[in-house]
Design a protein that fits this description.
By secondary structure, this protein is mostly beta strands. It is globular. It contains 4 helices and 44 strands. It folds into 3 domains: 82 residues, Immunoglobulin-like; 126 residues, Ferric Hydroxamate Uptake Protein, Chain A, domain 1 (Beta Complex); 569 residues, Beta Barrel (Maltoporin, Chain A), CATH 2.40.170.
């Protein structure tokens, strides 16, 4: 006790840093300036009078970073030994910041929504050459998967169990989702992360945005912003499965205080974990900008070209134990080939200190095909034959087919933003986009068919218009209480014409009008504690496949969602804790039930009521100068209130119908946990141990244990080290050991259940993918997607 009593009281005391933020030129106070404490979870916003206060800080030296739109970001050091008052003066800049481009579609602490931001440094640490779903893998409620098993090639993700067709994705506020399938194919944008400045993930409906409806989550990405100084960067990466990445990144910096050009060239290749699941990916990014007087005009061109060997069919269940890298495809060119070119013209103008305008034109060109070898195919399925050769009748033939996509997607987006710099911020936005896509199939070779070169057996077209308008406002009732309102109107027109590959006539027109209101409140209880609540409505039209496969008399309906979000946050100097509660109430959600149409194709069916309810816990702690800890967990229930199962009867050619009552929604694990320990043993060395747990998940909506993926737990170890030299800006070295405990796990699957109960069919059909069910006379045909065991990636980046 004597020793404790004579220790300096400053070791135990808690102090504060307070003061004002002003314009250095006019001395005007700046409200809503952001003050961040380095190596700390304190992030303070100055009040309407430009006043701020950061409390509960221990004695020591702190680095403050102060930012405000239209002003240069300022860094300053404060030595804290007592309560300290400071006056911060920011220098206005004639260069408008690139962040203004995305301000209309991003959430803030005042919108009452659940979101997470990743800055350039966060992205860089996670980027070891894998696709975006793996870079985001440690964020809450997210599950990633890869067809090839290594995170390169065809990859995907689900957020809160929500699939890609329900996750809105934008780049610089411009929609990325394919308007027909409503999905995003990350393989078409290889190495995109190298050209990103920030990512915001909004879980739930979130705020209004452009493009496909956000029906469970949205991902808002911003490309590289202005680099004041010129640089050139060379990156080389090598890893397991002969994975290689070569990247050249460069910038002119700001020329004559007005111009800048940025460019990137990348090549990624991998043999894949699964047999023959190779990827050959090429991409480039070029951006040129003109910075006028309080304005930006930027042109972006980025393109990706991919060739991936198909691994879409998965591995049979019984083969997982003996040959988990099995790939049923053996034809040399069983590949997917696609090129996607993106063009963006972005303009931002600060009209005055309260108003700014954003506008963008965009065009995306996509074209490509996947090629397949069909053994002993029925020629009648291609509108061919029979052929008579000598005395033989030829009705089957080996052949090679290609299924093509050739599409154009273009449009305009705009937003007008107002901020009175006191208590009111308003954004009004609108967009119009049109998609025109051709789908067609060709036979490029056949052993017997005499149909000529590149015979085309089907062709159809989709033409889709999407008009979107939104208005949102934040109003601060007091310094601690704010309200948010958001109203969106969407009008969608969709025309389909032509025939499908089974000769079904697709001619039809579909029209939808959606009004989606949203509201939220945010309350700052005190300097450490805050609370938010929001309610939002989202509506979504069916996808192309939903319309294509439906019977004419049973057109699928649009889906409807009410999303309730509530959250609590505690943020002290060295610790941050968040708890987010959500209840997502669906009406007419489209799901797989096993039901088929009148020609035997499985269809999506609207179910009356379903829901997702859960809690997301997020925590982070700055334990010491050399140790940081972050953690997130999601505990949820994902249910269909009354599920009807349809099972094909192969003996009667009918379907068996069973009422199962309340069941679990497929691919929706009840538990997802992410944990990271970050060690900084000395300056410029970062060591991270990332662990991920994903609970059991069903692969259909029947809640059958026979059709379920086991829970899995993986651990990755990552090293990042930066060396600085006199004539080289820095050399970055990274090394990653993924799945260090060699967990044998499966992250995705497909399944088809059928019945043959009279003994006339034994269920084998010569197909390794079919296995008998525990229920006599029933069979499961399923393919599973195993992920790689222990593997590594290492890379070096040299920046000049």
């Amino acid at each position: 006790m004597l020793i404790l009593s004579i220790l300096p009281i400053s070791l135990w005391a808690q102090f504060s840093i307070s003061g004002t933020v002003r314009d250095s030129k006019t001395n005007e106070l700046l409200p809503a300036a952001h003050i961040m404490v380095d190596n700390n979870y304190k992030r303070i916003v100055s009040d309407k009078d430009g006043v701020f206060s950061i409390r509960n800080l221990k004695a020591g030296i702190y680095q403050l970073q102060i930012s405000y739109m239209g002003f240069e970001t300022k860094s300053m050091e404060v030595k804290l030994e007592k309560d300290t008052k400071i006056s911060i003066k920011l220098i206005s800049t004639t260069i408008l910041e690139d962040e203004v481009i995305i301000m209309a579609t991003r959430a803030t602490e005042k919108t009452g929504t659940t979101f997470q931001n990743l800055d350039k440094e966060d992205i860089k640490k996670a980027d070891i050459g894998q696709d975006i779903p793996y870079i985001l893998n440690m964020t809450p409620s997210l599950v990633s998967t890869s067809d090839a098993g290594g995170g390169i090639g065809y990859t995907g993700m689900r957020i809160r169990g929500t699939d890609a067709s329900r996750i809105n994705v934008t780049i610089n506020g411009i929609p990325v989702n394919d308007p027909e399938s409503q999905g995003v194919w990350w393989v078409n944008m290889p190495d995109l992360a190298s050209s990103l400045n920030s990512i915001q993930i909004q879980r739930g409906v979130g705020t209004s945005t452009n493009g496909t409806s956000s029906f469970g989550a949205s991902i808002n990405m911003q490309t590289q912003k202005l680099s004041i100084e010129p640089f050139a960067e060379v990156g080389l990466t090598y890893g397991s499965f002969n994975t290689q990445r070569y990247r050249l990144n460069t910038s002119t910096g700001l020329i004559d205080n007005k111009w800048s050009i940025d460019a990137r060239l990348s090549k990624i290749s991998s043999d894949g974990y699964i047999d023959r699941a190779s990827s050959d990916l090429k991409s480039f990014y070029v951006s040129g900008a003109y910075y006028g007087k309080r304005s930006i005009l930027r042109f972006n061109v980025f393109s990706g070209k991919e060739k991936t060997y198909q691994a879409w069919y998965g591995v049979p269940k019984d083969t997982l134990e003996t040959n988990r890298t099995f790939n049923p495809y053996t034809y040399d060119n069983e590949t997917d080939n696609y090129q996607q070119d993106n063009y963006q013209m972005l303009y931002s103008k600060e009209i005055n200190s309260h108003w700014n305008l954003n506008a963008a034109l965009h065009y995306t060109k996509g074209r490509g095909y996947y090629e397949s070898f069909k053994e002993d195919a029925k020629l009648s399925k291609y509108g061919l034959g029979p052929y008579y050769i000598g005395g033989d009748t030829i009705s089957r033939s080996d052949l090679i087919q290609q299924k093509w996509l050739d599409n154009d997607f273009y449009g305009i987006t705009a937003s007008l933003n107002y901020d009175n710099k006191k208590n009111l911020a308003v954004s009004i936005g609108a967009s119009f986009n049109q998609y025109n896509g051709d789908h067609f199939g060709k036979i490029i070779w056949a052993e017997y068919a005499l149909m000529g070169k590149d015979y085309e057996w089907y062709r159809n077209n989709g033409l889709k218009n999407n008009f979107n308008f939104f208005a949102k406002a934040n109003y601060d009732i007091s310094s601690s209480f704010s309200i948010y309102g958001d109203l969106q109107f969407q009008m969608i027109d969709y025309w389909m014409s032509g025939i499908h590959d089974d000769f079904k006539d697709l001619d039809g027109y579909h029209h939808f009008e959606f009004v989606n209101p949203k509201m939220g409140v945010a309350y700052k209880i005190n300097k450490l504690n805050s609370f938010y609540f929001s309610a939002a409505i989202a509506q979504k039209e069916p996808t192309r496949n939903d319309f294509r496969d439906a019977d004419i008399s049973k057109e699928p309906k649009s889906e409807f969602l009410i999303d309730y979000e509530a959250g609590y946050s505690y943020s002290a100097s060295n610790i941050k804790i968040q708890a987010n509660f959500y209840y997502m109430d669906y009406t007419d959600q489209l799901i797989m039930t096993g039901k088929i149409n009148n020609v035997g194709t499985a269809i999506m069916t609207n179910v009356d009521k379903s829901y997702r309810a859960g809690i997301e816990l997020v925590a982070a702690a700055h334990i010491s100068k050399w140790l940081n800890w972050s953690f997130n967990t999601t505990l949820s229930q994902n249910k269909i209130s009354s599920f009807t199962e349809y099972v094909d009867d192969w003996d009667t050619y009918g379907q068996e119908v069973t009422e199962l009552g309340t069941t679990d929604i497929a691919f929706s694990p009840n538990v997802i946990i992410g944990n990271q320990l970050e060690f900084i043993p000395f300056k410029n060395l970062n060591i991270a141990v990332n662990t991920k747990y994903v609970g059991e998940q069903y692969i259909d909506n029947t809640s059958s244990k026979e059709r379920m993926l086991d829970a899995y737990f993986t651990t990755d170890l990552r090293f990042n080290y930066t060396i600085k030299f006199k004539h080289i800006k820095n050399i970055g070295i990274n090394f990653s050991i993924n799945n260090i405990f060699n967990t044998m796990y499966v992250s995705n699957a497909w399944v088809y259940q059928y019945k043959s109960g009279d003994g006339s069919y034994d269920g084998s059909y010569g197909d390794a993918y079919s296995t008998p069910s525990s229920k006599a006379g029933y069979y499961n045909m399923a393919g599973y997607f195993p992920q790689a065991g222990i593997n590594f990636m290492t890379g070096i980046t040299i920046r000049f």
